[in-house]
Structure formats: structure tokens, C-alpha cells
Amino acid sequence: MNNFQQQILQGIPDHLPNHKTYDSEINHAPKRKCILSEEEKKLAVKNALRYFDVKFHKELVTEFKDELESYGRIYMYRFRPDYKMYARPIEDYPGKSLQAKAIMHMIQNNLDNAVAQHPDELITYGGNGAVFQNWAQYLLTMQYLAQMNDEQTLVMYSGHPMGLFPSHKNAPRVVVTNGMMISNYSKQDDWEKFNALGVTQYGQMTAGSFMYIGSQGIVHGTTITVLNVGRKIAKQSEDLSGKLFVTSGLGGMSGAQPKAGNIAGCITVCAEVNNKAVETRHSQGWVDEVIDDLEELVKRVKKAKQKKEIVSIAYNGNVVNVWEKFYDENIYIDLGSDQTSLHNPWAGGYYPVDVSFEQANKMMVDQPELFKKKVQESLRRQTDAINKHTKNGTYFFDYGNAFLLEASRAGADIMAENGIDFKYNSYVQDIMGPMCFDYGFGPFRWVCVSAKCEDLEKTDAIACKVLEEMIQHSPKEIQQQMADNIKWIKGAQENKLVVGSQARILYADAEGRIKIAKAFNDAIAKGEIGPVVLGRDHHDVSGTDSPFRETSNIYDGSKFTADMSIQNVIGDSFRGATWVSIHNGGGVGWGEVINGGFGMVLDGSKESEYRLKSMLFWDVNNGIARRSWARNKEAIFAIKRAMELEPNLKVTLPNLVDDKLLE
Hints:
Blueprint: H1 3-10, H2 38-49, H3 57-71, H4 98-110, E1 123-125, E2 129-130, H5 135-147, E3 152-157, E4 160-166, E5 174-178, H6 188-196, H7 216-233, E6 244-248, H8 256-264, E7 267-272, H9 275-283, E8 289-291, H10 294-307, E9 311-316, H11 319-328, E10 335-336, H12 357-366, H13 368-391, E11 395-396, H14 403-409, H15 427-435, E12 442-448, H16 453-471, H17 479-490, E13 503-508, H18 510-525, E14 532-536, E15 544-545, H19 563-575, E16 579-584, E17 594-602, H20 606-629, H21 633-645
Parallel strand pairs: 3-5, 5-16, 6-7, 6-10, 7-9, 8-9, 10-11
Antiparallel strand pairs: 1-2, 3-4, 12-13, 12-14, 14-17, 15-17, 16-17
Helix pairs in contact: 2-3, 7-8, 7-15, 11-13, 12-13, 13-14, 16-17, 16-18, 18-20, 19-20, 20-21
């Protein structure tokens, strides 16, 4: 047994490790604001100490107090492992359960320095999307997974491994909940308080579900969005050549934008205030050029427009200045959006204009009310500039980051004339809802846990073959979807999308997911590839109830309900998922969304084939049924087709009402 395996099996060490050096070269989470009373601070330290033998309490109590004062959280930096954090080949992990080893692979990928936004703080993306609250939770979870057998289930309470419980081999190996607050305790400051106490966490979507695959995770969806927006604005069916897309955010998820712009074939300008995030995306090849001077940016964009270049440019500065400068310089913006982390506006998700990055980080802790005022002033300025551009013809869309919502709360000129709706639609209302989710298409993912790039190449080829066979018989309503996905998968290797685990994403419906998964399982059975983990983004057909994003195109009044996501996770649990998760928050913010995810290990067995057919069918069609009941015509088409293909499916269909009767 090697040293890595020994450390995993050890869990929380029986001696105190040496202090770790604070690595200033990597991206760290900003200090969280001080929100605890003196008594609550004592409780936070007491909560942290319960992970450790009492003989260490005297030394650790001062250390944890200092961490809480310095960072606003107790991360337990001392206990960060000495080994390198990355997704190892599955056979490198100790354990009795193949499924548990696959989960360890996925956890380590989420915390890989090349993948995670703030790796030392166990935050994968979005500024606060955490895998665990502290390093003790990581160590204990990995130990439990290494000890687990296939008749046990690990129960996870917001990053805390409650323990291994007897179950059975067809039960999930892990059940994850994150941030499941009592409803009246789900405001932003509630997260600050209870997270600081060490009793809950914000799992985002795929961060706390161990299913993050780097920016690739949304590159495909962003590419589809930009392509389809391009089709909406096209005058004569022209492509995006020479057209300009302006947006912001180069963090974990938002870093996908420049790559998607390149694939879609436009000029992309993406502003980002954090220089380290800019450097990371540029070094990884996700953005072509970096410019930190507005005058130089103007010249570069004019040249790119003139030559109709396909290029992505990171502007190291505030996007508000870009919108205003481009208007003053009469630079026409074809497409506009924003993907700063506005679900987390007061703690580093959005940085105000005319305040330096360093000043803002200090202000959000020392002067939180002033920081909030500056953010809201900035949102009003950004909205004013966007409104000027849209009057000139710019197509602006909310990209699911709560930009419209927070701008409205800031008093920006963002509301429609009826005073209820926003001036601009979200991308789900215009693109992803009617074109993708209602038809059952969403972000299907797989990870080759062998960690072999050749396995990923083989799975790409398998998926492409399945889609090319399917398109021959697909109805005309989904032909464009099928064609876009075939083009995507054929270019996946060339576009160098892999960061971290050998993973791929592909938009597919239930039929496509099942056929692709079965083909993978068959290949595993033949020894052609190693085990594969299936998953998806929570941002999907069924997984998420989010009135300002995933379910924003639900118009029957039910978009503020969360039955779908809860039913989804319950159904996945007894239909064969290897692990399931349900979260409060994610994407658009704490208290604004409930979202669920899953992971499924394929090992080539007949049992795997049964599970994938049962679970993947439900995982998609649950959402189509809900969307159909909301009277979405594309979903009505899709669920009728699903019932034709599966005689055991019987869904309540809506009777459509003539609106004239209600006049």
C-alpha cells in the first residue's frame, strides 16, 4: 500500500500535521464579513473542535479562532493533505467498493488546483460553491468511502459526513444534502451566519455534488446559447462571423464564455476584475488574448470586426467601463450578457466599478453596507449602458446569474412597462427552455475514471456513432438539436475542453442518454474502456426548480414551487443512482432555487444496464411531464412521443383553454 492510500485510510490523523504555508500564488476566497456575535464565535470554534481528539483542543482552539477572525470561516488549513489533489485512476484509490472509488475520483477532481476556483478553501466555483466546509470533512469523507462496502450508504449533511449506514447494493452509495434550511432562514445573511458556524454550506450545483468538470461543464450549453441567439438575430441566415459578444466573468463557470464564443465563430470580449482568474483562463487556453487598457481594447475590437476574426479577448477590468466605452466609441455590440456571480453579490460575486479589486475585497468585510451601496450603483450604471446599446439593436439576455434580479433590486431601469416582467428575457425563456429543456435535451455528462485520455476518445467516438444513427430517424422538431450535438462531439478533441478529469458533456434527450450509456456499458463489458461515471449538470430538464433560470419559461404560476427537483432526486434514488444530491441555492442564489443531481457508475454489468435504463428515463421525463402540464407546447410534443415509446408511461396531459373565454 502506497503513502497516498495510507493517508486516505487514516482519515483525520492521530497527530497534528505541520502548519501549511499560505500559498499566495493560487486564487483564494475573499474574507467573509464578520457576522457572528462573540458567543456565536465561540460556538463556531466549538463546532470545529468536535472533529478532533480532546488532546489537540488546547493547541487548535487558538488556531481556529485566528482563522475565523482572519478569513470569516474555519477552513482548518493545517489539515489540507500533503499529496497533490487531482483525479487519479480509479485503481489508485483504496477501498472495497468500485462505486466508492469512483466517487473519490470525482471529489478530488472538484478540488484540483487546475479546476477549483478557491482550492484551499474547498470552493469549486461561483465564489462560494463548496465541496466541503473544512478539510476535516474531506479527510473523514474519503476515509469513509475507502472503508465502505456495497451494502452501506454514506450520509452527507452539507459537507459533513454523518456516517455509514446499512442499506443494500441497489441503494445510493452516497446521499448528499446542502444548505437545506428551514424556509424562513434562507436569506443571504443566513448563509453567512450558519456557514460561519460550520453547520451548513452552499453546494452551488455540481460543486457539492462532486460532478464539476471544469468550464467544459457549460461550454456546450453556452455554445448552443450563442449559436441560437445568432440564429435569432440573423437577417439573412448569416453566421456570427464578425459579430461582437460582450460579457463578463472568467471564474469557474463563466470561464466557458470565450471558448464558446470561439466555437460559435464570433468576437468575444469578456471582462474580469480578478487578474488571477484572467491568468488561469489564458494559461489554460480558454481565452486567446488579454488586454488591460480600454483604448487598446477599442482598437483591437475594431480591427477584429473589420477582419471578421474569430477571437476571444479577456479585458482585465470592470465590464461597466466596457459597456460605457463601447457606446462612446460607437462600437456596435451584437450580443450582450453577463455572468458574474450575482447570486453572491455582497461577498465577491460582483465587483463595483471605479473601486479596485483589492479595495473592494477590503470594503466588503470592513464596510459591508458601503460595499452593497457601491455594487448597486454599479448595477444601475451597467444597466443604463446596456439600455443605450439595446436601443441601437443589441440583443441582451440574462445568462442565469441573477443579473436582472439584482439589478431590479438595485433600482435599475430594468423592468418592463407592466412593472412585473424584466425588459430582457433570460436565455432559458428565449433559448434553452423552448429549444432544449422542453424537448428533453440537457447537459448529459460522463467521466472516464480510468483517467486515460484514450478512453475519452473512444467514448467520444461511441457517442458520435449513436447520434449519427439516431438522427436518421429523429422527428424534424429535434433535427437541429441532433445536428448541433454531432458537430460538437466531432470537434470536442480539437477544442481541448478537458481540464482535470477525462470528462465530456453533450446535450441529449432521454433516448440519446440511454443509448449512449448502454453503448458505454457494452464497451466496458468487452474490456474496451474502463469504468465510466454518468452525471449531468443540475441545470437540466428536471433537476432544478429556479424561477429566474431553469424554470423561467414555466408560465402557469408554478415556477416558484420545488416539487419537480425533490421528486427528481427521490426517483433517482430508487431507480439506480450511485449517489444523489439536493441543494438549496446554486446559480441564481441561496434561497432562490432548489436543485438536484446524481452520479451513476457504469461497470459493464447487466445490473448497470438495468439501472441506466430505469433512472435516465425517469430523470428526464419527470421534467418533461411537469413542463407539459405547464402547457409548454414543445414539452407536450415530447411527452406524447415518450409515451409512444414506453407503454408503461402514462402522464396527465393539459386541456388547453381558449383565452377568448376569459376576456
